[in-house]
Amino acid sequence: MILSDETKRKISQAKERYPRAKSAILPGLHAAHEEHGYLNDEMYKEIAEVLGVKFIEVAEAASFYTLFPKAKRGKYYIQVCRNISCALLGSHHLTRYLLEKTGTKLGETSADGLFTVVEVECLGSCCTAPMMQVNEKYYENLTIEKVDKLLDDWRNAE
Amino acid sequence: MTDFTITVNDQTVPVNKGQTVLQAALNAGIDIPVFCWHPQMDPVGACRICLVEIEKFPKLQVACATVAQEGMVVHTESPKVVKARRGVLEFILAHHPLDCPTCDKGGECDLQNITFKYGLDYSRLKEPKHRYIVDEESTFDDLRIGPEVIRNQNRCIHCYRCTRIVDEVAFEDDLGAYQRGNHTEILPPPGKEIRNLYSGNVVEYCPVGALTNTDWRYKVRVWLTEQTPVVCTLCPDGCNMTLWTYHDKLYRATARPNDAIDKGFLCDIGRYGYQYMTSSDRLKKPMVRKEGELVETSWGEALEYIKTHTDDLKKKLSGSGFFGFIGAGAYNEEIYSFQRFLRRVIGTNNIDYRLNRKRHLDYDKEITDRKLGPDSATYDDIETADTIVVFGSDLHSENPITALRVKRAIRYNGAKLIIINPVPTHLAVRTDAIEAIHKPGTGGVALTAITAAVLDRIKGDPSSHGLAAGDIADFNSKHSDYSGDKAAQLTGIDTTTIDKIADIVSKSESAVILTGAFFGRDPWRDSLLVAATNLRKAFKRCLLVTMPDESNVFGAEWLGALPNRLPGQIGFEGKGRFEDAWRGPLTDMVGKDTIGILEAINEDEIECGFVLQSDPVRKFPDGGYARSVMEKLKLLVVIDSFMTDTARIADVILPLAPFAESEGTRTNWEGRIQYSARALKPLAESKPACEIIELLSDKLGTAFQQMSPLDVYSEMIGFLPVDAPSNFERLPQAGVQIKANPEQPIGGFSTFQFNPVDSNEEFPFHLVTVNADHHRGTLTKRSESLMNFCSEPYIGLNQDDADKLKLSEGDLVKVESKFGKVVGKTRRLEDLPQGRVVIPDNFSELAANLLMGRKERYDRVKLSKM
Amino acid sequence: MTGATQNKSNARETRVLLEHVGDPNLHKIEHAIELGAYKAWEKVLKEVKREELVQWVKDSGLRGRGGAGFPTGVKWGFVPVNSPKPKYLCCNADESEPGTCKDRVLMENDPHTVIEGCMIAAFAIDCHTAFFYVRGEYDLSMRRIKKAIEEAYEKGFLGKNIMGTGYDLDLVLHRGGGAYICGEETALLSSLEGEKGLSRLKPPFPAIEGLYACPTVVNNVETVSNLPRIVLKGAAWYAGMGTEKSKGTRLFSVSGHVKKPGNYEIELGMTLRDLVYGLAGGILDDKPLKCIIPGGSSTPVLMPDQLDTPLDFESVAAAGSMLGSGGVIVMQEDTCIVWVAEILAHFYMHESCGKCTPCRQGTGWLYEILHRIENGQGKMEDLDTLLDLADNIEGNTICALGDAAAVPVISTLKHFKDEYIYHIEHKKCKHNNDFRLLPK
Ligand SMILES: Cc1cc2nc3c(=O)[nH]c(=O)nc-3n(C[C@H](O)[C@H](O)[C@H](O)COP(=O)(O)O)c2cc1C
Ligand code: SF4
Ligand code: FES
Fold first, then answer.
1. Residues in C touching B126 (Cβ below 8 Å)
2. Taking the CB of the first residue and of the last residue of chain B, which one, N or C, has fewer CB atoms within 10 A?
3. In this model, does residue B399 exceed pLDDT 90?
């Protein structure tokens, strides 16, 4: 049992909202993701059980959607928008800067387990570029200074 | 009769409403390339190779998914189409490894063929080709994803045929497509394998070499092979196959699509089962017993041996001192000539093929008088039914292709599936079936309880179900003990389940009841048949089909492999016809059935027997008895391809050529007679049955001058109520059907008699024999491929029972009955109810029939840990 | 001559959808109601016949804001309302088209108008279970809409027998999993059914066989947000705004090299110049303009000499582009166009669902070539290959993602072939496009 009863309750509630149980696969994945911050096969099994759908259906769906990391990653999951509007305003430099500051490579988690920096596609924040999403939260109109401050705050928070 | 026409490349093409442009074009002989389309699955329009130009459409359309509309004007090879098609091909080929020389699909690859046609000889891709697994050791990036299936993802063109076959056709869930975009990968679910009973089809229908199997890969180039059309011999479904040979050696079996039967799919048992014929332990020379030892000899000597001994015996015994057993796996012609040999040459009617039955098998009077026989039906009757009742059958493993047709009924017809069995079966998985598991021996009660519940629902208007006013009252008066809570008590099936089933049955417009081995081997089969015919009557419209448990039982029944029936199911009053045909008198003796024969041997009334392609010692549900009795015979002649348990105690063994080394016709469960050609020369000195029987007849003084199956067929077919050509090679692929029993049951409901199962403290477990995964009968253990799925016997029991006995998976456990004991490995089963032991009857090393007693109603055993 | 700097525009926004946006309490239901939320819903339920409503919206001339610009009332008209099957409305809030962030503004600030719009659209097709498909990354939007729906249930605007009219309606929030393709309506339906987000063949069209094979309408957030006001102020009022064929106002997300990036609501028909140089304040550092993508990454670029194109469906089409999703991406002169094309190609490769061949294989191939050229390893013949591959994708795929992927390649090659050639010949870019973070 990897999913908490609470999470399972959420999932079976989601099931009630749809005409067909299968529709609750995405809500199920979200619930598991909220609990663990990533997804794995065990979770798929349990989601499938709660919903009464095929294990493979959950596994296939999970593999398709990019929102769910398939392994643990840093406490601060830094997703920098790499797409056009942000790129026009320097997001590629921003990424490079973040990697430098966190001493990691793209997708790697920093030694202290705090940071994982990845590049993602357009996050719908084009008018407030450049931007990044850290876990759920958006940070927009970024500058070097803002990024420095954020990193310091996070480090100090530890 | 077509609805309208469209124009394809200036040719007028007839269309049935609802047909796609592709189907219409193909029917008209216009070729449109396809990758993802498959005739038996819904179109997905994914590969885009079938793009065509349709006037008034702004864009090219996929022919496979575009429904033809009256007056459409279609161009399949216009410049625009060809450009697009070449584009699609270039995209597919861009990252496709051009490793055709080492690819098994080479020579039969859709991608090769279509590229050949559209002549792409270059790629503009400058980047290195994408590889899914970069394995410098091998150039193939192979990944084994199942006991037989190997995946090379680089070659995959993402047509999704494989995953759709698994999901839409087989209702299985062991193959999927993961990730997305150009990283999409075909894989089983994490931590699992693709090992469903139909797994071979994904290999056959992969248009490229992305999925291959160990059976065929790297053994021979396809263009060197010859193909022979045959019919599978491993179950009564009668699927059509092609055997692929090279230099008189077998390499593989593939589907030979027959829309009336298999729709182009094969189960793995049929696909890989053929390997038994190539196994090294085939009998190659005749053998005779000298100083107690079986030694190889020549045909001449063997036949001489038989002649001298039969002549001696004939001096002191009449025909009643002889018998013959025949396996119902043989060709029609072989069965026919064998019984003709026994009746005409040996002069005996002691003939039977039913070796796995306990009680005497002459039907109860009620059944014969009232003509309560099964109905004749076809696959299409199943596919069009709105309700399907599977009773006493593990349909999935006994009749895999019939099971697929049931699934088609569910998918395309919304048919409801009801399963009533003593043990849970795989068919219930993912079919939304209502599965009712009853205590052993109470299946008849279950059916009666359902019938009662149905009648209760329709009592308002019995005539709607073709019942007379009095029928219902009459039924209830006779069966009050077998309904409601009483029935629940007896069967262990709760009343809500019975009610759910009754709701469906009472609403059904057209139904089929399918019975199988649990039914067929039940000593009280007759009472089950009564219960089933009663349920049948309670339906508005329903066909009762008793699935045979061997591939050619239907043929055996109709070609005289029964003591009391001549070919064509003709009784002895009609023997005159045969005396004319066989040029000589036939005995009037009343023939004995299997049990009668064995008992007569025991009484020394029978001293000589001929056994063709069957293994009573292994099969008879009292193995110890069968062996001890057969050992008493003065002369036992066994005609077989392998050293069976019965052959071991024979005096003479004649090496038999299996089906691919001969030809003939077979009769599937529908009564459909199909032709199966010869793919190989007989191995070494083995001979086809017809030839062997002719040699015997000749030796014993009555030649029929019918060496070849064709000779036999042309005589035999005259005795069957079918309209068939005089040469079996001219039979249509769909074959011709014998109608099972044309007569309808007479009168109202009959009385079901329940024979309670005695409880037994000493032997608390019920023994149930089953098929091991991917096996059927005892031949398939000679197929390496099938052994990859399940390589050894086991003793299966409920996990709680196992806990009580401290048995963990794989522990050695001893199974004992009054009659014998066997030892095997424990398999703990979740969903098997307590108090049952299942043993697969596919492995001689664990012969469940040693535990059985022919007089026992049900076989009871006890278990102990070793 | 682009007139880049001398822009004396006094262009104004016409804030209809954004009327109250900026009010910090707008997302709270009490406050929203004070400002008139759910009046239209009540009117529809109590006074309006379904057919009437559909007619109004037809008359208003409202066209879809999701990308295709299909007349909303007409789309509703395709639904066989008296079919025995349930009908479904799906509000498309998957906003993922690069350059587009307008729906988000509405969801975060004015969620009640958004869901009221969904309710009205649902009523228009006799739907009793509606779905709201919001892209997974939009955390705040999701929470705002979630809250709004809860409040609407509490207040009895959703649920059984709404306001005693006997009309039942449930609105279910469905959170996406991160996939641009799920904005495509058929893929959205697959995703909603619990499948992977694979697009589906049309026909059958969603209006006939959509969600769970039932009649379904997919409408964009901005589209439905117009409905409450159309109901209250009338079709004529709405049709009074905009141009002959392109009625009403529209949100444009102006991003890239402009001084005042942001979402601007304007009457359709305002010129691109007024939007970019007027409202958005012109190009950063008053650099010369290079080109503008007017309707999200999937639309062809417009050149400086097209700045006076009125922003309405027809004029932009005439200028060779599309209004698409209203994502206006502005690029100043020394932007490397190959680099831009590469970024967009990477996006489409990453987002292709992989179902059909040309898109699955083609998007990746385009990216690989552009990547090579951008990194100085291009060959001249690559340019023809690019165009030909794009041509082999366009029109041959199941959904429009394939076409979208072809557009940037075709249109940048059309206007900036010389830059591509320079890249190939000099193995580097002619600009020193060293973009920096915004100044403090
Ligand atoms: C690849 C692709 C992505 C799309 N993404 C969106 C989207 O994010 N939001 C949206 O409203 N429409 C999107 N669309 C358009 C939808 O398919 C659909 O036309 C639209 O939601 C209909 O709503 P409307 O009529 O109100 O515009 C997309 C289309 C394609 C081909
Ligand atoms: S493996 Fe073969 S059958 Fe399966 S998707 Fe790939 S090409 Fe098609
Ligand atoms: S065969 Fe038509 S798209 Fe594949």
1. 369, 372, 379, 382
2. N
3. yes
